From TrEMBL:
Its EC number is 3.1.4.4. It is an enzyme of class 3 (hydrolase). It comes from the Eukaryota. Keywords: Hydrolase. It comes from Dioscorea alata (Purple yam). This is Phospholipase D3/4 protein.
Length: 448
């Protein structure tokens, strides 16, 4: 995308580590030899970085919007690209100043307002070579790109505003928590909201919060799928969804609704497949812990009412959230409830597997304080990082982990479609992982 850009390139990034740092003792790359680094694939990251430099030198207008980054590089690479180039703007947005917690977690590229990438891959050489990622690349889709650009501009506008003048501490009735939100949030009573500096979002009278929309905006455009064994030029509905909801505009979906609608799109007796790095039925970063049953409830609903089969893949890696297993096991209890009475007409089932990329437990710097660690891969690698869901009829590809914070305090974007070819592709991707020797069944809770 950097190589093809002729006029404009907008990038949303969580952090930047396109260049390997094997000589920096603070880095997860530290201690590996030059041969090791090349064998791991670091050249791919260098190529992307150079393509960005080349685009900047061709006087492509580049806007970079990012979180403050991660240790030890933070925004070093993006700042270097912007340094001395008037055509490159580099902005850091701290969502924690607006929502009390949260980050820019979206991974989005928009080239010439017609080509877009949305997916799980970070601007990190390891994401491109040592982490399993899923994304979608659309070319020549100016109608979709234009709408995605509005979301980018909303983030950009936020970075120019003083959060102390535009935030409120509120009691969130929906989530039963005290938290900080922008002053135009629908979690604030409509009479107490400020006027939003962002494009208008649909109002739902007499409702606080962001309820399910019965008729969200859909694109009706043909999507070609070159290189695949089938294609169609019929105009199946497609959509974009966004988080957090205060950045919505028009009649676009919240990211949470897009996930829920995908789950509930499963046909009677059909199958819904879901994959995420993280899964947690609560908040992770908010000061006051929020319980979040949305996805689990939707899954149980289709198991009961539609006799659906639900398959869930969750990453198992060096940085697992400690109570993920308990939430997954509690979801498996839906199978017990489904068959708990002879009067239940319930034939659905949920199955959950951990996906363990080989070497996940041997990641990190090769040396610490001059001593060999026994690690064989750089830090924060060897993980199934994709975030997507696919039913019999609908595909959803996103940037958010399945944890409350990613939908209510964190910047995330998803693309979804009813295009049957893309649905089939995503099903194939999932089944390849599901049936692999690296997918390990999550066992149910033991009966007391």
């Amino acid at each position: 995308m950097a190589g093809n850009a002729s006029r404009k390139l907008d990038i949303v990034a969580q952090y930047w580590e396109l260049l390997a740092q094997p000589d920096d003792p603070r880095s997860g790359d530290f201690g590996y030899s030059a041969d090791d680094i090349e064998r791991f694939g670091a050249g791919v990251g260098r190529s992307v970085y150079r393509a960005l430099e080349d685009a900047a030198d061709r006087m492509v207008d580049i806007r970079i919007l990012q979180h403050s980054g991660v240790y030890p590089d933070y925004t070093k690479e993006s700042s270097a690209i912007a340094s001395g180039r008037s055509n490159v703007q580099n902005v850091t947005l701290e969502l924690g100043d607006w929502w009390g917690s949260g980050i820019v977690h979206a991974k989005v590229w928009i080239s010439d307002v017609k080509d877009i990438y949305i997916g799980s891959a970070n601007n990190d050489w390891k994401s491109l070579t040592q982490v399993k990622e899923v994304g979608i690349y659309l070319t020549g889709c100016s109608r979709i790109a234009n709408k995605l650009e509005i979301y980018f501009n909303n983030l950009w506008k936020l970075a120019t505003l003083d959060p102390t003048a535009f935030t409120r501490a509120v009691w969130d009735e929906q989530w039963q928590a005290n938290r900080t939100v922008p002053c135009w949030s629908h979690f604030i009573h409509y009479r107490q909201r400020c006027r939003s500096p962002l494009p208008h979002y649909v109002e739902v009278p007499h409702v606080t919060g962001y309820p399910i929309l019965s008729d969200p905006f859909m694109f009706h455009i043909p999507l070609e799928t070159p290189g695949y064994n089938s294609s169609t030029l019929l105009q199946y509905p497609s959509y974009l969804s966004f988080a957090p909801p205060e950045l919505l505009f028009g009649k676009f979906l919240t990211d949470e609704q897009a996930w829920l609608d995908t789950i509930k799109s499963v046909k009677l007796g059909g199958t819904i497949r879901m994959s995420s790095m993280d899964w947690l039925g609560q908040s992770q970063y908010l000061k006051q812990t929020v319980y979040w049953p949305s996805l689990s409830s939707a899954i149980s609903e289709v198991i009961f009412s539609k006799n659906a089969s639900v398959k869930i893949l969750v990453a198992y890696w060096a940085h697992n959230i400690e109570n993920t297993d308990q939430y997954l096991k509690s979801l498996l209890y839906s199978n017990v409830l489904c068959s708990s009475s002879k009067y239940n007409n319930c034939g659905g089932k949920v199955q959950i597997k951990y996906y363990k990329v080989p070497g996940y437990n041997k990641t990190g710097p090769a040396k610490i304080h001059g001593n060999l660690t026994g690690n064989v891969y750089p830090g924060y690698t060897r993980v199934n990082h994709g975030k997507y869901a696919v039913s019999d009829v609908r595909a959803h590809i996103g940037t958010s982990n399945l944890v409350w914070d990613y939908f209510y305090t964190t910047a995330g974007v998803s693309f979804g479609t009813y295009n049957p070819v893309i649905v089939s592709q995503l099903q194939d991707i999932f089944e390849a992982d599901w049936t692999s020797p690296y997918a390990v069944q999550v066992e149910p809770l033991q009966n007391s």
